[in-house]
Amino acid sequence: MGCIGAPPLIDAMRAALPPAAAVIVGEPSGLRPVTAHKGGAGFFVTVTGHEVHSSLLPQGVSAIMEAARLIGWLNDQNTTLRATPPSPVAALFDPPHTTLHTGLIRGGTAGNITAGTCTFSLEFRCVPDEDPDRWRAAIRAEAARIEAAMRDVHPGCAVHLHEYFGLPPLAPEADGAAEALIRRVTGDNGSHTVSYGTEAGHFQARGYSTVVCGPGDIAQAHQADEFISVAQFEAGGRLIDRLVDTLAE
Questions:
Q1: Using CA atoms, how far apart are residues 236 and 149, in angstroms rounded to an integer?
Q2: pTM for this one?
């Protein structure tokens, strides 16, 4: 998760191997060539509050309720982004805007105690023409604002953000060797983008011509019954055969 193993792998490749003419990242694209995907970053957030009995609420700081303020800010950003007309680049994606999300949360010790700690995950996925560092700064600024208000009640309160992954976007390449190769093999000349992230952004950022193409559908992933159809699996094998034959010509 987060493609965190890719950067050291790519650095080792660059140091030990001849430069590759093209990189094909085999993520689920229905075997269509994908030339752009979103980038982003993920954080683990730890909110430290101040425990008191819930009947004395104003004297305490609930880490859960303060975490909810930051999560609510994420939702407000999503609402604004959905209502903003997309740029030409953003319009290529579904959804056609940057998204912010919380997928995990845990905190508290009892229903009648203001929560001493709350931890949750936070991620954003931004379109290639937006600066990920701007979103990093905005998130940290909002966390700092919430922290300052918490410390007005108790000085030991805090909001700590640990970034556990950062993923560059994949952007379309002018006359990209990887795109030309995979289009030759698949015969697909359509324009395809995805909103999930892959190692392709890391490869491209380190100078490789890169494209995403693989069997399956992201809609079938990360479900209790995650699967890839037999037809797509077999078609993926045939794609590899054609790729080898093409490179051997």
A1: 54
A2: 0.84
